[in-house]
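Customer ticket, subject: "Can you confirm the structure for FecCD family ABC transporter permease?"

Message body: Hello, I'm evaluating your service for our small team and ran a test protein. I'd like someone to confirm that this is what the system normally returns, since I don't have a reference to compare against.
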Amino acid sequence: MAIVSHRSSRAAVVTAALLFVVAVLAIGSLGVGPVKLSPLAVIDGLIGRGGDVQQIIVQQIRLPRAILALAIGAILGLSGAALQGLLRNPLASPSLFGAPQSAAFGAVLIIALGWADVRSYALPVAAISMAFVSVFALLAVAGRGASLLLLILAGLAISSLAGAATALVMNLSRNPFASLEIAFWLLGSLEDRSFRHVMLALPFIVVGGALLLTQRAAFRALSLGEETAQSLGVDVARLRLIVIIGVALGVGGAVSVSGTIGFIGLVAPHLVRPLIGHDPARLLIPSALAGAALLLAADIAVRIIPATTDIKVGVLTSIIGVPFFLYLIVRERRSLGGGLG
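Agent reply: Thanks for trying us out. I re-ran your input and got the following:
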C-alpha cells in the first residue's frame, strides 16, 4: 500500500509539473513571432487591457495556434499511451500504425475534390473515417498478441498504402495550385490557423480523448494479460473498439487542421514513463500533457529558428522523432537479446 501511495503521489507531482510547463509554453507561444511580446503584454492582450493591435495579435492570430498546438499535442500523446496500453507494446503509436497518414489521405481527397471550403466538416469526417479504417485494419491484420515485428510491418504497409493513395490523388488533381497546397499541408503546420480551425477540430479531439480516458481501469487490468483482464470483467473486444474510435476521432480531427505531425504519440509516453512507472492508467494524463508540451515547444522553435519562412512543425517533430524511434528499436533489441541469452 505504501508503494502504491508513493507512486500515486509521484504521479501527481509529475502531472502538476507538466501542467506548469504547458502553461509556460502556452504563454511563450503567444509571445513569440514577428512582434515579440513579454509575458505581461501577453496577459494584457488576453484580458483586453492592451492596445487594439496587441489584442488582435494575441487573441486572433496567436491564441488559435496555441490552442491547436496544446490540443493536438495532447491527443497525440494520449493516443500513443492508449495504443501502448492496448497492445502492451512500448513502440505502439498512431504514426507508426498509419493513422495520421490515412487520415491525411481522407482529408487530401476532400481538398482535391474542392469540398474543403463549402463543406467544412467534410474534412474532419473524412480524416476520422480513414484513421478508423487504418487502425481497425492494423489490428485485424496483425491479430491478437502480435509481435513487435509484425505490428511494425503491418503499420508500414498501411502507411505506404496511404502515402501512395495520397500521391495518386495529387497526381490526378486538375488544379496545380491545389496540389501545391496539399503538398505543403502534408508537411504539418499550425501556421495561419484561426478559431474556425479550432472549432473544426476541437470537438472531435475532446470526444476522442474522453473516450480513451474512460478506459483507464481497463488498461490497468489488461496489463496483466487478456485472460486475467477478462476474468476481472473487462470486455477486451469492446475496449479495442473504443480505443480505435477514440484514436480515430482524436487523430482524424487533429490531422484535418494541422496535416501530418508525427512521433509526438511515440515520444511523449516514453518521456514520462521513467518518472511515473509502467502503470498504463497513470500514464494517460501525463502523456497527454507531455505531448502538449512537446508540440508547443516545437511550434515555438519553428518560429525562432532563422529561416526565410516558418519551418513546418511536422518536419521538426520527424527530425527529432526518427532518431528517438531508432534508439527505442535498438534498446528493444538489446532487451530481447538479453532475455534470450
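A couple of notes from the result: The mean pLDDT is 86. The chain has 14 helices and no strands. Feel free to reply with more questions.
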